[in-house]
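haha ok so turns out i had the wrong file open the whole time. this is the CORRECT one, sorry everyone. sequence first:
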Amino acid sequence: MKQLLTLVTITTCVLVGATARDTAAQDFSADEFDYGSRFALPDGQTAEIWNPAKRKLIEGGPMIGGTVRATDPRTYCAMAAAGYDFVWVEMQHEAISWEQVARFWRTCPGPAAPGVRVAYANEREIQHATDMGAAVIVVPTIDSVEEAQAAVDWTYFPPIGRRSSGGGQGPSELWNDVPGGYRQTWNDNVVLFLMIETLEGVEAAREIAKLPGVTGLFAASGDLGNFSGFGEGDAEYEGLITEVLEAAQDAGIHACAPLRWANRPGFTCFQAGTEGANIRRGAAAEIQQAEERFGSTGAGGTPVTGSGAAPLLANLTAECGSITYEADCNAAVQQAAAGASSMGAAEQEQIVRRLREVMGTNPTHATRIREIASQAGLTIR
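then structure:
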């Protein structure tokens, strides 16, 4: 009898416990759960900004990022040490592997912050980037609020996002000793830019900009032309750019653009040239300086007065020697032609000669280059 009572008691307790657990499970709601304080900083302490790109934005900018399309760590390291606030590795349009990118950042984690343009707003893409050490995430062709929210989700740790804590060289090697701790301060330090490149993206831009976690909207100069069929200077195109800019401003976040738009009011963050353009620009300036010195000695060459043409020639070589973005080349042509109008005959002839070279190298662009130069007051015969 005693054994029977014991068995009944145990059975009753098990059933009661099971019922209690079932009730608790039924009552649980993720939406109503209060996030804990495990990763909170001590009372009165604010997160230190250890990401130089984020710090530059907080200071008001301009925040400038260089662009790397190569696969050689030495090239990346040269760009990372060139003075940029961050370096944007091109993972959307180049055949670069995450293993190669990880080697870039492990070899040269600074002084420029590691950054990347991923291919799309995807858990695998963005968490590869963050776990490998990226502190700036750029996501292209955002068309909707849902896509934008996915980018936020995979970039940020809870409670803002859904990034899982998976380790990787970012938290364990590159940023393991940042002030306050990586996990505790990540959400305050990461930079997330969403690129508005399509008509659908422009339509949704104001709602996208309001999402918590979006640092800035990037007005994609090239693809807004690609998707709209209009170019810079056209009223339709400029209207799209204005809509993106105003969406960012109204939401109190940053508006980003190519570096040649640094004189456009309202933009505070910029994408600079590629490593290839920088090599061409540097070589052109160096050669121009050498030719000027050679000519001034009387030992030979063509004497050159002044050096006002040198930066214009270097920029033409950089942006038009191998055209990556047509709009950048056109802007360099316009700048060079406009500058030549106030120069002496010798320097003006140098610019005309370089423009002819560019037209010869890029015959499909020759007519447009001649038109831009003519509009700026420089005739190319």
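The first helix runs from residue 2 to 27.
again sry for the mixup
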